């Protein structure tokens, strides 16, 4: 069913206004919205919905040119066709009306045949504009749906890769979830956009994906690692970066940055590349704090869990050395909102 077109009529002469209204209503699928006071019409414009407008040029209180300005000032009316009705054939006036945004002119006295033809022509233009707008809206919905589906698949890939990493080490699997949650909290405390915070939290779950390339006897050793074993364990950062590198997916590229740089230190003493300060991606700096904190308060085969206060003190002490000071400040704000009981449950 074709939607009826709405025609805004503004004419201070009531006789002319009644005539125009009747001509509009006789034209077919049209509804007229009429005003005899241009000031009243201008005030009503923000709440009016119409497809085309027809207004007189000479009116008390406001000229037709001023009325066009008010019409165009409402964003949704920027492309609505406007017809100027005038008894004046002056070319400068018509040029001024065209510059203001008029697309057609009607001469007074109004010729019913000409009026009906103008309305019909503009009606076809309005229908074409409506179809284009509907098509644009359909395309936008299709793009949004495709983007959402792509995002869903990307998140599924991340989830499955994280599960794969956890098969070799149950501690890694549990640590990953806690650490990623802390990354999201720190990012939010830093004031990053919500979408970026969510991406960092998702991507951080793969920070230890490179451990799939570490030998089991090293990864699962109950005691402390010797120097050679420690060097081998450190390879997990580069391996993780390589696994995730080169993707067209923004989320996987972010995950690659985190995997590669979450053991870099603010003062340049970290690994694998010895990056320092802002040269370390922000997501990697956030992950560094969250990773160390969760490791400290968690039980490992080679150590007991640190008390919460001791772990927080260590993070604070390493501000400006191991960790980005801004990330430490954000971290302290996050842990201040968490109770020791929460940490105990999280680290269990």
Structure description:
This protein is of the alpha/beta class. It has two domains: 135 residues, Response regulator (Rossmann fold, 3-Layer(aba) Sandwich); 181 residues, Hypothetical protein af1432 (Orthogonal Bundle). Helix content is 59%, strand content 7%. The protein contains 14 helices and five strands. β3, α3 and β4 form a beta-alpha-beta unit. It is elongated.
N-to-C span: 63 Å
Task: Indicate the CATH topology of the largest domain.
Answer: Hypothetical protein af1432
Largest β sheet strand count, sense and barrel closure: 5 strands, parallel
Low-pLDDT regions: 344-348
Question: What count of helical segments does DSSP give?
Answer: 14
CATH architecture of the largest domain: Orthogonal Bundle
Number of domains: 2
- Record the strand order, biggest sheet: 2-1-3-4-5
CATH class of the largest domain: Mainly Alpha
Number of strands: 5
